[in-house]
Structure formats: structure tokens, C-alpha cells
Design a protein that fits this description.
Blueprint (H helix, E strand, L loop, with lengths): L1 E3 L4 H23 L6 H20 L1 E6 L3 E6 L3 E5 L5 E5 L8 E8 L2 E8 L3 E7 L5 E5 L4 E4 L4 H15 L1
Parallel strand pairs: 8-10
Antiparallel strand pairs: 1-2, 2-3, 3-4, 5-9, 6-7, 7-8, 9-10
């Protein structure tokens, strides 16, 4: 089964804003003297790879098979075997508490990467929105994802897990 990964308005706005900033910096880079271009060169060296990396890691959709949950990104997929899932449930953003980004994007093409919070501990977040959150827990890792129909996703995963056990 395939579940959409739809960006929320905040993520869309942050993404579009950063793209516009990179384009404006690129235009300024072309129009200024070489001696005045050092700050914009540094900004482009930092922002352009960060933007491309966030795009490459962002979820395109989520796939549920009989054996695993697949977070399908543009450049790579993350596979979570259902046999490793100890607990899976829908959550609200409040349950994540005050999360700090360890190595993550906080809105550019979604909410991606490694996070830490006092309530949840360390977890990986591969979300495109903050509304349809699902927490997946294994013995040694936690993932938060955001399939478009999170209720149906949780029901489908639990049905498969219960049929196996």
C-alpha cells in the first residue's frame, strides 16, 4: 500500500522562501564584481548543497508491504522491517515536546533527520507535515513519519503485524 507524503503550509513556505533566497543570491553573484562576491559565494556554497540535500532526503511517499515500511525519498529509501516494530501509533506534535535538531532540516522540504527531545529521547523524523504523525518504535530506534492518512496507515500496519504473530 502506498501513502502520500504531503507537505504542510509551513514547510511549503519555508521551502519556497529558501529557494527564492538562493535564486536572489545567485543573481547577485552574477551581477557584482569579483571582489564583492565573496559573501554571496560563501552563502551559495552553504545554501545550495543544503537545499539539494534536503530535497534528496525528503520523503516522496511511504510504502507498506507485508514485510516492511519503506520511506521512499528522492535519493534513498529507509526500510523498517515490520518484524522489528515493537510499537506503532498516531501521535500529536505536542507529544514530541520541545525537540532539538541534532542534524536535521526543520521545514525545508519537510522535517527531516535526527532530533532529540526530553519526552521522546533520540528519534529520526521523516515527515512532510506536522499533522499526520506516526511514531514507529523498535528496540533500538524511533522514527516519526507523516503518511497522509495516518489512521489508515496505523490500522494497516497493525493488521499485518497481528496476522504474522
Amino acid at each position: 500500500m502506498r501513502f502520500a507524503a504531503v507537505q504542510d503550509d509551513s514547510s511549503k513556505m519555508i521551502t519556497h522562501l529558501l529557494i527564492v533566497v538562493v535564486i536572489l543570491i545567485g543573481c547577485r553573484q552574477v551581477m557584482v564584481d569579483r571582489h564583492d562576491a565573496i559573501p554571496t559565494t560563501i552563502a551559495l556554497i552553504i545554501l545550495l548543497p543544503a537545499l539539494l540535500l534536503a530535497w534528496g532526503l525528503s520523503p516522496r511517499y511511504y510504502v507498506l508491504t507485508a514485510a516492511e515500511i519503506i520511506i521512499k525519498g528522492h535519493l534513498r529509501s529507509i526500510r523498517i522491517p515490520l518484524s522489528a516494530v515493537l510499537r506503532l501509533r498516531s501521535i500529536d506534535e505536542e507529544e514530541l515536546g520541545e525537540s532539538a535538531r541534532v542534524f536535521a532540516s526543520g521545514g525545508v522540504f519537510g522535517y527531516l533527520g535526527a532530533y532529540r527531545s526530553a519526552e521522546m529521547g533520540d528519534y529520526s523524523r521523516w515527515c512532510t507535515n506536522n499533522e499526520h504523525l506516526v511514531l514507529i518504535e523498535s528496540a533500538n530506534a524511533k522514527w516519526v513519519i507523516s503518511p497522509d492518512n495516518s489512521t489508515e496507515f496505523v490500522k494497516a500496519v497493525n493488521k499485518i503485524i497481528n496476522e504474522v504473530h
